[in-house]
Amino acid sequence: MSGYPNDEITNVGHHLSVSNGEWNQQTIYDARNVLLTQHSVDVSQQTPEQRSGKIVKPPIYPNHILHPEIIPSLDEVPAELIKRRHKRFNDPSNIDSFEIEMPLAIASSLQDELERAVQHRAAQDRNHDQTSIPESADSANNLFQGVFEKESYPTIETIEIDEPLESTSRQNLPRASIYDKSSLREAFQRIKIAGDFDDMSHIEDLEDAVGPLLRAMVIREKYMIFSLQSFPPTVAKFLTKTLEQEDQSRRASSTVRANTEPKLRTNSGGTSGQIPPKHTIPSIPTRTIPPQVSPNQKLPIVESNLPIKSAAHASDDPHPFHPPVIKRDEAFNIPLLEAADVCVKAEKGIYRLHIPDDAKGWVQVDYPVVDRNQFIDDYTLLSAMITDGPLKSFCYRRLQYLKSRYELHCLLNEVKEWAAIKSTPHRDFYNVRKVDTHIHAASSMNQKHLLRFMKKKMKTSGDMHVYKTKDGKLMTLKEVFDELKITAYDLSVDMLGVHADRNTFQRFDRFNAKYNPLGQSALREIFIKTDNYIDGVFFADLLKEVMSDLEDSKYQHAELRLSIYGRSIDEWDKLANWCVRNTMYSANVGWMVQIPRLYDVYRANGITKNFQEFLTNLFKPLFEATIDPSLHPDLFRFMHHLTGFDSVDDETKPEKPIITADMPHPEDWNMKDNPPYVYYLFYMYANILTLNQLRRARGLNTYQFRPHCGEAGAVTHLVTAYMVAENISHGLLLRKSPVLQYLFYLCQIGIAMSPLSNNSLFINYNRNPMLEYFERGLCVSLSTDDPMQFHFTKEPLMEEYSIAAQVWKLSSVDMCELARNSVLMSGFSHEVKMYWLGPEYQESGVAGNDIRRTNVPAIRIAYRYEALCEELRLLGNAYKSRQDRKEKDRLLHQMEKKSTSVANIEHPVLNNGKHESTSNLPKPISSTINGNSGNKINMSRNPTTNVKGAAFHKQAKDNLQSILDNFNAIIALIRVDDPQLNPIKDQLPRILTNTTDDFEIRVRAYNMVRAFESLLKLVSDLKDQAVLYDFRAINDAVKAQRQRFKNQQSDLDTKLISLRDRLALELVKFEDEYANKSSFKIPKE
């Protein structure tokens, strides 16, 4: 047993104690007594022998399952459990026979169903303790058979992956029988859609939606990989498999420059860090599948030829990983690294890494970088996608389907889920790990806590100088309150005025004023600021009390946000000194830094000259502390406990919601206007990317980017967050954008929601979309935001859960799933998460869940995973169907071209004017781009665009030519040119003149219809081509020819109008003749 205070998990490999046996006995008693309403009726129907407890008939349960009426005594329980461990369901037929042996009368009783579910789950858990199942490469692929039935997913080994050997060793670990496909099939009831799944025609807008959705997922994968943030491995494998033939579509995300790996040299001559081979700047290999790891996990670069054995598997102990025991006094005793021979230079607002080169001086390190122009193209594309009508309809229907599917799942499997968690020893909602992933340190205490603290300080530190006025006068705490004419006795929570009420609804300015106790900014500076006259002593003492409350609760954790404003270069040093000096450490607390978007305020007050100075104040100290820790020793130590960055402010401020290529770079942004939200997030992301690459090269922890987003303002804020953020806070506006909501689901982007905060500011509690997100399968969790403003109790996170459970009728399984999501979203280290969630928490599906720690049943995890795989399978099949359709259309087009050539030979006269009618058609894009035109655009970076552009142009030209040719043929066929019939030609029914002509007219009309249909399909193909390949190059080419198209427009309109008028006159004439002349006779000569 570890000395760690949170170590409670029992080693199930040893004999269970008597207390566990008592629990097992009590569990069965509780399961039998769930529905007591039928007990009296059942007793009345029993025989005297049954009422006496004597069983005359042979048992109907197998010997290794405890019969509900033959429960062993307390002394027999440990021995019985040990005996049951040696038996397991090795063969799925055992389960089938177990179910068949149950009589129908018992199976129809809900009470007995609960008993069987509890016993079945207990048998599987006990069987897992002694017997291990070696998992082959094929069984590792079982979970993906829900995605592709006909063509299974490749195993991990069949894809090019550059990761340690521990991923291979994980496949040979024991799995519980519930993880096996045969057992999992029997675990719960599923909803299946009958019919031909390969027929996509019944799903409206599917083929129009699949291209943009895949492109959007590839875009996020690229930005997550570049910045060393996490991307779901299930989705990464799906994209690799689906787009394996489309190299161009993923070239930007999965292919990175792979030059020689430069090493960071220290000033002493060796490589930087503790292990010499680990400090090479890594390059992402082709088609790398990123593991789902915490950004706070240390990721040193390890030579691939070194055998690595995961610490999780180094011992036979099923719970080997425990968080490191760090005493508060030793938390910041971190040895400093030697200085690395590397420098950073800001280039257009983005810091770049440079290393020395003997021949060229300082050269830029070759690592993944993000280009602003490419970011703008991706952002513009995603912004256009969220307004596309067919795409919105498709995503909305899929989201509604997911919600309905979850409701059916609960109706069918709620009892089994309840039985699974009831059979789990010790664990319940109160003692599962839950993290408050969105809470601000300045308001992390409730209003009563702040009031008590202020009264205590007035009594104990009243004579302490705590405030310095603008004129330089020093004031004691007693003098500050005397000036306000307030005593400690007078203070009350109502007088503090820090709690939000109905007057703050839709008034963010009033909410910000609530941070000032008694409405006085001086009190805020004294009590809840780190940089003040007393160096933040009061704030440190207050937060230590908050941390003490969290430690007392043991299972509640928080990621407190401290503020860095970017006003001066020494802010980071002051904050780090405050943390180290006051030993601000707790095993229950992680630290994040929030950056308010207040550049316009600083510029108006003359604090900063341009936006580049703002960025320099934010990131330059971080790079210096990472490169040479001796320059900022306290900051280097504080960064070890830092988990991520946040961007905060009022999103409803008016702004230009888009970013364009002509926007000034940060060094040129010297106007007083505040940059838009996307501008802030792009430059923060780009610099965090460089910082993460540098810290990973030095073997240090990396950071998440988790901004406030979607609480109010424009929906396009969520587009930016989708591209660059690990997860977000709030996300209310996702309810207005089905496309983004569906993408957030597919990519499993975390959303920390605060319904109580939203209820006071932007949306009523009953209208909050949190429950809808959860039912549809989005990765959501509950958080408090600002307990000082919104909560009343000592445990604000539990208050948040309890209110949500009451209002939305959440079950214990639902709340435990939300708690598990909060741990996954948090920035706590990988080692800590392995203890909280299980050593295999990074695995997909059921294999990554340990019910003994999370209290989330495997049934719920399997349902979530299978639902996601089904959505991915739908998109994969649709993409394959679209590719097959394109091939069929190509072959059909060739056949139509041959038939048109034959028809032209039969009617050569009809082709007069053919070249004249089509001479003004646009030339192929490739010919204009690569020819001698004055507007040349280099398309060499994507040669596929030239070929496909020419093919699309040729298809459009052929279709238009086919329409004109067939129309001319029809006009020629209905004319009567025989001189003998001239006297009466106006009286002849033209169409009935010749049956052969009539048949040919019908064929020509059919050909015109087919050509029009081909043109309509061409529009969809052009759209997919632009989305999946090189949107920017095609867009540039279209712009270059725009003037030429405009010049042709008037001529084309004139010809079409003339053709329309002529057609209209002919049709009117035919209709009149046919209506007025019912029969005609040809006169004899």
From TrEMBL:
The source's domain of life comes to Eukaryota
Biased composition, class Low complexity, residue ranges: 280-291
Quote the biased-composition stretches of kind Polar residues, using this chain's numbering: 918-936
Q: What is its EC number?
A: 3.5.4.6
NCBIfam families tied to this protein: AMP_deaminase
Compartments where found: Nucleus
The top EC class is hydrolase
Q: Which Pfam families match?
A: AMP_deaminase, Med22
Its pathway is: Purine metabolism; IMP biosynthesis via salvage pathway; IMP from AMP: step 1/1
- Stretches for region Disordered: 118-138, 243-295, 910-936
Q: Which UniProt keywords apply?
A: Hydrolase, Metal-binding, Nucleotide metabolism, Nucleus, Transcription, Transcription regulation, Zinc
Asked whether the UniProt record includes ATP-binding among its keywords, one would answer: no
The record's family statement is: Belongs to the metallo-dependent hydrolases superfamily. Adenosine and AMP deaminases family.
What function does the entry list? Answer: AMP deaminase plays a critical role in energy metabolism. Catalyzes the deamination of AMP to IMP and plays an important role in the purine nucleotide cycle.
- SUPFAM superfamilies assigned: Metallo-dependent hydrolases
Coiled-coil segments:
none
A cellular-component GO term for this protein: cytosol
Query: What name does the UniProt record give this protein?
Result: AMP deaminase 2
Name any cofactors this protein relies on: Zn(2+)
Q: Name one GO biological process term.
A: AMP metabolic process
- MF-aspect GO terms: AMP deaminase activity; metal ion binding; transcription coregulator activity
In this chain, composition skew of type Basic and acidic residues spans 118-129
